[in-house]
Write a structure and sequence with these properties.
This protein is mainly α. The protein contains 20 helices and no strands.
Amino acid sequence: MGKRLQDVRKRRGFTQRELASVSGVSVSLIRKLEQGERADTRLETARRLAVALRVPTTSLVGGPAAGAGEGADPDRDDQWAPVRQALVGPVGSADASEVPTVAGMQDLIDAAVPLFSGDRFRELSLILPTLIRDADLIAETGGPAGRDVRVRLMQLTGWLLTQTRQFEAAGTALDRSLEDASDRLQGAATVNTRCWLLLRQGRLGEARELAVRWADEVEPRISRATPAELSAWGWLLLRASAAAVRDNRPGEAEDTLRYAHSAAVAMGREFAPGDDFLKAFGPVTVALKRAENAMVVDRPDLVLKLSARIPTSGMRTTSNNRNRHLLDVAEAHTRARDYAKAVDVLQEIRASAPEWLPNQRYARDIFGRIIARRRTLTSDMRSLADAIGVPM
């Protein structure tokens, strides 16, 4: 990254100090990057430099930036070892007295969905290996219906492993889901999570291209579109917007967000086709993503303004929507130096999603900045630091 940064900086006629002044990135970090003392930096920092230099973020990072492709937490990695092994292990044979059935597997997955939507990671790490192996057996013996069962489980598993930063295993699960997908909407649901995975890895160009290509593929006629079609199209547009705004393409980000808003208006309300929480989409979802884009472009004031108008009280408090938005709200309060409100928001997330919060590097970054500006910490703040995983 340092060589690319230096080349672009010189072409733009900036000194290191001038670039630091315009971008808000310290001159010492710019110097370390260009001299090779640091191989890369966080995606947020790379985007600041790209904005100042008027180039796409990807022209600087070239690949995953540190912190964008935030890998698995080593302290939690072994929790998912049995799941990773089940994804790549051979398909076994069932005991004749305990042969899984399509209907039985569908019931088991339906019963497990609240664990996924509720971010109950410990329980999922225990039951998923058996579910994956049984789904593999059903896919081998149950025909198209059996493969549909595996598609659904692999979608959920890929989403979960992306959530918990098991990125390689998430890719494996999503690849298997897409291979078995029997129609374009099934495929689009899987690609939606694949785009999210690419975003978390900092692979912005790939995420953007994949989302746009599939959005073009599934674009419905609005006047006749079903909720499932609107959800699939709308989510792909949101992923394209998220990739574009992070890649310093604000016009493209706004265009795709506007199209997503059109899909949400046509949907009329927040709705989950097939009662599938991964497909929940509507006007509030788009508003949440608009606020997320505002934070990416350093508009904490706009985040708070938008947040005040978003009716999140009736939404399910999951990481897939409200809790991720609340992290942006906490960051906006931190930028405004209102640390008490930021801590209150983080405590609210902790109460609703105690297993989800420690997996969020964004939360650690926010709270780390709060701690750095405090002389002393209350006992509640120390407890929150432990919960988030911020070293004291």
